[in-house]
Amino acid sequence: MATVQATKQTQLTMVQALQSALVEEMERDEDVVILGEDIGPRGGVFLITEGLIDKFGADRVIDTPLAEAGIIGAAVGMAMYGLKPIAEIQFIDFIFPGFDLLVSEAAKIRYRSAGQFGVPMVIRSPYGGGVRGGSYHSQSPESYFVATPGLKVVVPSNPYDAKGLLIASVRDPDPVVFMEPKKIYRAIKSDVPAGTYEVPLGKAALTREGKHVSIITYGAMVHVALEAADAMAKEGVEVEVLDLRTLQPYDTDAIMHTIAKTGHVVLLQEAPRIGGYTGEIAAFIAENGVEYLEGPIVRVAGWDTAFPYALEKAYMPNAQRVIRGIKKTLNF
Amino acid sequence: MDIKPFTAEPIRVLAYDGTPVENVDRLGIGKDDWLKMYRWLVFARAVDDRGYILVRQGRAGFYAQIAGQEASQVGSALPLHKEDWMYPDHRSQGSMLVKGLSAAEWFGHVLGKMLDPTQGRLMPHGPGRNDLHIVPPSSTVGNKITEAVGTAMAQRIKKRKEVTITYLGDGATSEGDFHVGMNFAAVYQAPVIIFVQNNQYAISMRTEQQTHTKTIAEKAKAYGMDGYLVDGNDILAVYLVTKHCADKARAGGGPSLIEAYTYRYGPHSSADDDTRYRPKGELEMWRTQRDPVTRMRKFLETKGLWSEDQEQKLQADVKAQVAKAMEEAEKSPAPEPITVLDYAYEQLTPHLEWERRELAAELGV
Question: Do A74 and B146 touch (CB under 8 A)?
């Protein structure tokens, strides 16, 4: 199992780590191009592409009209032709005008051409709440993408993984939806090597070891899980935290390993519960690992409503909600 | 011939009866080209007619005929170069054949055999062929424009003298992706031809129910692009207008919209009943007075280039070619059920490997 092992180098934010991945991949391969709204002189609204247009020119850093279907569609056409486009969707809440191009085209062209055409592209997009953005700048729509065969879905939780996973995504032969937890874009730093490295897709990270209960989660919620784990440690409960990192395909071995070890599992996601991604993980555990379970599989999630503005603290899962979940399965 | 955008009447070289209305000796194409065009028209119609019979025999689940639109399809594909890219729509087999798809592959596709380039994965409205630069079509019509523009942007970025053509129908111009694609094409001056076959019906909806503009071609003006209205049943006109746009794009002149005004003889698809919405007499009028194949034949006859003997020989040759292609398709094996999981991703994911074991158990293999 891969764990986060930064060996050297600079402390970077996720924004800086993502930019370093883009620069290194664009330097490595001239077929890598990026496109999206305001990514040129503006540097993207979160400044991840800051300075790239000066470095690589307007043919490779393509500012686009305001149309997500155009961005995703153009990226599909470029990818089939042989480029390696990285499309930025400014907020993942805006991806829906381009949804058809993503789920009917990018995801399925390989299958319906019997492997003749591949669509090696990455869609990068910030997701998630906690930034006072209301429902158009806060959602976590990963379950739509995970439910679409042909797409891979990646969600980093820290700067080191963000860089390595983005590099792996750019080099992947299939389309990757790369969801960036904007709440922690600049909130945390970690050691990030200057050179190129890949964090392989489909491999989870054991972020914290424990023996009493496992929290399986991803993205910004990893930090909520760690906060809950710290609190539970004071009560003598050792919480293990598994960061999935890739939601499709997911690391079944790591999941089986942790539930076999602890026998209790809490699944944590920011998105609404019904039809949410962790329902898949719950079903996988119920089908394949029920003999290890000593308590119910508990899901902790956002409420089944739209994402609110002033009420977001009441909406988003926090450590207290996770602790209630942990106690529910431990006290079964 | 001076090819101008935004004409009120369709650009035309031949009148409905095949009489030239332009000086055909100054078109830059000659006798051999005319004969080649006519052979393609006859071949495309014969392949299509044979394909449709497969549905009526219960051997295929779906078919969208091109009958009536052969001049639009053949005429727009002939000016393309081998390296150019084609984005067909769900009624483009005439264009695909010209680009290099074989009749046997087309029949294999309709029958869902291994000869089908999609190996039975895509319903029979057109396979893709990567080596021929033919992209598989889509049923959410209109969305391919944005992809075609992306390919054309890539062609420009890589500084290649290539063009991309994307096909759609009149109905698809109502989709949001039409607007997005037109806008992207123009903003980036992409070397792309957006070729609309206005066959006057989107299933049952007539063009005037679809749009409030008099023509589709004029929509190009709003994007800062040239739009050409051409008689889609006049293969000489379709060829010349498409070549004009392709030459312009190759020379860095950017995108064009072409509206080929034509008529579909068949129902929308084998699942449609077109008697419910077509006015009486309309179909017969187009068949008897405006047919694209007959028009070209009459032209060749007026030029003294075609005889009844030649016609009979061509029909016999084409019939034999079609029969041979069908035989080849029928001999091709069906795809193995175990392959259903292949090509979802470049490699099977761990989950798909598990599903493969499940399927193997189910199939007893």
Answer: yes
